[in-house]
Structures are given as C-alpha cells and as structure tokens.
C-alpha cells in the first residue's frame, strides 16, 4: 500500500512537467509580446550611439552580426508606441539557409535567437493588423489547436515629416532649407517627434511658375560646425541612402541628371539613414542647398521645424503572438 | 490481566495510525502540486489588453504639431472633460475586441468608473462612466490616472472646476 502511494506521488511529480507546458507557452507568448511592444531592440538609437536596428543593411555580414534583439518600440521609455520601419523590417523575412547577402531577417533562426530566446525549440506565429486596414502582416507557421497566446494593442508612429516650400520669383537662384536638429529633438513625446536621423524627410517644392526651371548644380548639404564658424559643404552621394529630387508627385524615379524641369508637384526626398551616414547627430545644424537656373527665391533659408513641417498621425494596431 | 493479545492489539493500532497519517500526508503533498494556473494566465491576458487600451486612449492628440497650438489632449481626457462616456465606450469596446483577423472579434465586456475628489467636502466621489451591467462575473480591474481640467460650459460629470487627476477604473470580463 505504502509503495503504491509512493509511486503515485512520484508519478504526479513527473506529470507536472508535462502539465506546465501549456502555462509555459502562455508565459513565453507574454514575454515575446513584452519584448516586441516595450523594447526598442538592439542596437537601439541614443545620443552618441550607432543606429536603430531597422537601418542596418542585413546583407552585410558585419551589420547582421550586430543585430542582437528584435524590439519594435520607439525608445526604451515609450512602451506601446512602435516604429513603423521596425515593424516593416520585422515582417520582412527570407527562408533561405543562412540568408547571406539578403537584406531581410532569416526565418526562423533570427526570430528564435533574437526574440523568442531559450533552449526549447518553440514554434511561433506573430501577426499584426492596423485597425483601419484589413491587411495582415504575419510571420510564422499556422498554429495547432492549442497554443500560448497574448494580444497587444499598440500605436505605430508614421515616418516621414514633410514641409512645403513655396518658391517666389525674386532675386536668388538658391533655395535653402535649414534644419536645426536640436530644435526637432527637444520634443518630449517620441510619438510626435520629427526624427530626420531615423526617418525619411520630404520637402515639397511648390509654385515653380517659370517654365524649364531646373537644377544647374548638384544638391549639396552645408553642415555647420557645433562650435560655430563657416559651414562645410557636402555633395550628396549617388548611392542610397541619399537625397533625391523628383519632377512630379507621380514620377517613379528621381531625376538623375541636372536636366529635370521642376513642376508644381516636385519634391525632394532625404532617405532614412542619410543624415546618419554623413555623421550628424541631434545637435547638428544643416542647410540643404538647391541651385536653379532661374531666380526662384529671396535667398532667405526656409526653416524646417514644428511650425512648418507636419508628420502623419500614428496608427492604432492589434498584435497577436502565438507560441507552441 | 496483561497478556500477549493486548500487546498485539496495541501494535496493530499504532501501525494503522501511522499508515493513515502517512497516507494523508502523501495525498495532501501530492495534490497541492496540481494547482491549475490557467485562471491567472487568462486574467493576465485580459489585464494587459485593458492597460494597452487605456494607454492608447490616453495618448495626447496629434494636434501638438499644429502651429496654432491645438488642444493637445488625449481622447480619454476630452471624454471625461466634455464628450462623455458614450464616446469612451465606443472607442474602448472597439479596440479591446479587435483581433488580427478582421472578420473575427472578441466579446469582452467592461464597466468603467471615475473617481474624483470633491474639494468642498474632501470626499472621494464615484461616478459611473460607461459600460455594461456587472453581475459578478470573473473580472479583472485595470486603472489609469488621467489629468483633466474641466470648464463650466461643458462638464457632464460635474467635476470640480480645477486642474486635477481623476482615476479611471475599468472592470473587464469575458462576456
């Protein structure tokens, strides 16, 4: 009798590990949700540091190697506020072995080692949908009937601050847009911050009334030294990330030469990561210089700040994490 | 009158007693391990969702970027100050019941209450904000402090007309 009870006792102890697996799945799903929603990932951006991980070019082995963790939030102290580019990069994956030379996350290895963690080989399905849209983004296999689950609600910051520059027929051929980064980065709420170092920036060029107005000089950036004094002119590079100018809103490709003619829907686009590439930080002061063949300005720089620029409003989204 | 029979009875009694005690101990110790934890997990999931929803509704308005200096208030702040609980209920219910699959939705129910302090009496007053009738279902509670500044022209909940922080408490359950 005693022997029987002893065996029965030990048996229940053995079964606990089996039973606790369902609890464990829920716990791992919860943990994964927290990493995704409340952590900016690694490398993350802060003063004096490198880049946010979404700006890494994963086709270069060294950059892939520096990616440590896949968090999606804007910063450490902004739980629930995600960055759109991180979300896009997160759901972009490639299933080839090793994924060498491809600028996408490796499925499922990168997700397991940089998000789920642990020795046990969990399977996962992570999906996200903006409430106003029906498009579902997802990564992972279809789940079995029973799985660990968590649902999170998030706001996604939309990138791409833009400002309108209306040219005037005056005395100067130079259109200059001045950006003082310390002014832009002083905004406390990261959800509404204009963030040219991590996002693309658009300058809408309007009101070109003289026909055949075009650039006569490549665009260059004047970088003002922090200590004051004369600026250093930097020519924009040909390869991405760089600065492009488009003839019209519907132009599929940017003007490659100086031959393009400006219209009333022309725009200039600074690609995300360009300002990082030329070594700027939150205290930089720059001027984007465009020189045209006609007199299109009064020579006074246009300011790019919270009074002149707008940012698209954030989107609300729902995210589900399933683990088994 | 002492003999062998009495001793045997005594030994048998002690042995039976020991056996019963040991059995009871083993049974008790073996069953406590199997406490179901699923209930806590389900509560945690609900609590997380409720907190996320309150964070979203308490996110300042986009108008912070307006050069004219817009209200810069969160939806929840506006609803407590002027718009009323119906607007809150609609927003809150929509986002907590949304799932990734657009054709599917959850059936969560909630009941929201405001707590504010009446300055003249010093009492904390409880105000029904919005939600379904609560019949003692298995519910979780989430809350958030909201900064409000009501003005006299529209103040549906009769709050004191001063800068203050009110507590929004939401009971959430699966309906």
Structure, explained:
The complex is a heterodimer of chains A (324) and B (175). Chain A is α+β, with helices and mostly antiparallel strands and 324 residues long. Chain A folds into 2 domains: 2-157 and 314-323, no CATH class; 161-310, no CATH class. Chain A is 20% helix and 27% strand. Chain A contains 6 helices and 17 strands. Chain A has a 5-stranded mixed β-sheet with strand order 1-6-17-4-5. The longest helix of chain A is centred in the N-terminal third of the chain and has 37 residues, at 2-38. With 175 residues, chain B is of the alpha+beta class. Chain B has one domain. Chain B contains 4 helices and 4 strands, in the order ααααββββ. The model of chain B is unreliable at 66-70 (pLDDT under 50). Classes of the chains: A alpha+beta (324), B alpha+beta (175). At the A-B interface, helix 1, strand 4, strand 6, strand 16 and strand 17 of A face helix 1, helix 2 and helix 4 of B.
Summed up, what is this model?
Chain A has 324 residues and is an alpha+beta fold. Chain A has helices spanning 2-38, 61-66, 84-90, 109-116, 181-184, 274-277; strands at residues 81-83, 93-94, 105-106, 124-130, 136-140, 148-157, 161-166, 174-180, 201-206, 220-224, 232-235, 243-246, 266-270, 285-291, 302-304, 309-310, 315-323.
The biggest chain-chain interface is: A-B, 50 and 35 residues
Helix and strand content put the structural class of chain A at alpha+beta
> Mean pLDDT of chain B, nearest integer?
84
Can you summarize the main beta sheet of chain A? 5 strands, mixed
- Indicate the radius of gyration of chain A in whole angstroms: 25 Å
Question: Strand-residue fraction of chain B?
Answer: 15-25%
Arrangement of strands in the largest sheet of chain A? 1-6-17-4-5
Which blocks of ≥5 consecutive residues of chain A have pLDDT under 50? none
Structural class of chain B: alpha+beta
Main sheet specs of chain B: 4 strands, antiparallel
